[in-house]
Specification:
Length: 522
């Protein structure tokens, strides 16, 4: 069941595809098509040129550019130089990007014309060897600037080192920062490719004939492991979109030179919006065989409605950056439990621990999810205390609360730090959000706890109306009371245009609590 042939160094995997299927498309976007034969050459050239610029073994190279083929290419090229590829959210606030650049200690930044001005500003406060620019560079900045196209145009005088072992750090991604400042997470080839071998290949069936359509942000681990590494490992094709657009997505499924789309990965909110806006129109996806959801909790109601509307399996899974993404997954074959995130991956061990007593909880009871396996991160960058707190005797403490049914299916109920305690009663935001999303008037929702003088905390809901004209608050609350115990019903509905989320779809609850405090004074 474990596809061990995919647990190899990326240079070995790329060389195999370059020899056996050099003209097969690896990655394609609206500007560029990259075959496996070309990918082996270009990643070697980029690695050699980075070495010439002074990038050493273990140095970090920051990728700071929008979704495009070059991101996937650089993810594979930087480790070939013996360096570590770091990726930042190109839409992040200036302060967060500055933190990632300084904290990572990156020596080179690979960016695009759209972000070059910002990189030039950041470069004044750090020591960089060079800035590599995809597109027109224009005026010169404070450090040497090199055109990405020049790195591709000619072979380097240096061969790529190709020296990283399976257990060396090859990538470093920063956590979502849903509760505070992001932390750099070390990821290895073994950890990431073990997920390919245990999940994407055997469970989802990803293979060389698949075409994956990805609007996922490539700075996130979900996209790195599935849309870049898994695609390259099995020899499939990834059609990379610059962003997610409901109006644009339907036209992308058929007619491409690389073939019809067969696999469609997204985060739950994307499926919700697609269902809300496209389900009642003609939707042609002749080759689509499976959709995959991860990154946040997928409500059972959305899963069921999507499969009914589009006639294709939507598999939900659970994973986090610190586990090289996936921990559990629903299978294409066999039993599924809607609303659950599936079964633990083969070869992975999980425990549910009572946070108060530190003991394992029985089936049906809630506990903190602990994970042990080859995919667990070696630790956090320059944060030994945080590493020691998260990794206990080989177990990674996720901070997520979950339940396991008698058949082993796991359901995530929320974060330990997100629990709302109202007058002694526990409320999990995810449960309330699932109920609200089942109400026709609501397109998106997020629940947070706010202070209350007598009850300690009460839940309030930020909601995005499904249609213009706003919500009938009384009707929404009446429907919520039919779905939830009275103490779980939000005390207030706050309409908003959008729910702030990370690239993986996780709700930025601290922003909503700040917004509430600014508006209501507590």
């Amino acid at each position: 069941m474990l596809r061990t042939e995919y647990i190899a160094t990326m240079p070995e995997l790329l060389a195999g595809h370059a020899e056996s299927r050099p003209e097969h498309i690896a990655y394609v976007d609206d500007e560029r098509t990259l075959t496996y034969g070309a990918l082996a050459r270009t990643t070697a050239r980029i690695a050699g040129h980075l070495q010439e610029l002074g990038v050493g073994i273990g140095d970090r190279v920051l990728l700071y550019l929008d979704n495009r083929v070059e991101v996937a290419e650089a993810y594979l090229a930087v480790p070939r130089a013996g360096a570590v590829a770091v990726c930042a959210n190109p839409s992040a606030a200036a302060g967060e990007t500055a933190h990632i650049l300084a904290d990572s200690g990156s020596r080179v930044v690979i960016t695009d014309a759209a972000h070059l001005a910002h990189v030039r500003e950041l470069a004044r406060d750090v020591e960089l060897l060079a800035v590599v620019v995809v597109g027109d560079t224009g005026a010169t900045g404070p450090v040497p600037e090199v055109a990405y196209a020049d790195l591709l145009a000619a072979p380097s005088e240096q061969s790529p080192r190709d020296c990283l072992g399976l257990d060396d750090t090859a990538w470093m991604l920063y956590t979502s920062g849903t509760t505070g400042r992001p932390k750099g997470v070390y990821l290895t080839q073994r950890g990431c490719l073990w997920v390919v071998a245990a999940c994407w290949a055997p469970i989802v069936g990803l293979g060389p004939d698949d075409v994956l359509l990805s609007p996922l942000p490539l700075f996130h681990s979900y996209a790195l492991v599935l849309c870049v590494l898994a695609v390259a490992a099995v020899g499939a094709t990834a059609r990379i979109l610059p962003r997610f657009s409901v109006s644009d997505i339907a036209s992308r499924f058929a007619g491409g030179p690389e073939g019809d789309v067969t696999v469609f990965p997204r985060v739950p909110t994307m499926f919700h919006y697609l269902l809300d806006r496209v389900a009642d129109r003609d939707f042609a996806a002749p080759g689509l065989r499976v959709c995959v959801s991860a990154g946040a909790i997928l409500p059972a109601s959305i899963n069921e409605r999507f499969e009914q509307a589009f006639g294709v399996r939507l598999l939900d899974g659970y994973g986090i950056t610190e586990t090289s993404t996936m921990v559990t997954m629903n299978w294409l074959t066999g039993t599924r439990v809607m609303g659950s995130c599936g079964l633990p991956l083969p070869g992975l061990t999980v425990r549910l621990i009572d946070p108060a007593s530190g003991t394992d909880v029985p089936a049906g009871c809630e506990g903190e999810l602990w994970v042990q396996g080859p995919n667990v991160t070696p630790g956090y960058h320059r944060l030994p205390d945080a590493t020691a707190a998260a990794l206990v005797d080989g177990w990674y403490r996720t901070g997520d609360l979950a339940r396991r049914d008698p058949d082993g299916f796991l359901s995530i109920s929320g974060r330990t730090k997100e629990l709302i305690i109202r007058g002694g009663e526990n409320i999990y935001p995810a449960e309330v959000e699932a109920a609200l999303l089942a109400i026709e008037q609501i397109a998106d929702a997020a629940v947070v706890g706010v202070p209350h003088s007598h009850l300690g905390e009460v839940p309030v809901a930020f909601v995005v109306p499904a249609r213009a004209g706003g919500l009938d608050h009384d009707m929404v609350l009446s429907e919520a009371r039919a779905l939830l115990s009275s103490f779980k019903v939000p005390t207030r509905l706050i309409e908003t245009d959008v729910i702030p989320r990370t690239g993986s779809g996780k709700i930025l609850r601290f922003q909503l609590r700040q917004r509430y405090a600014e508006a209501y004074g507590n």
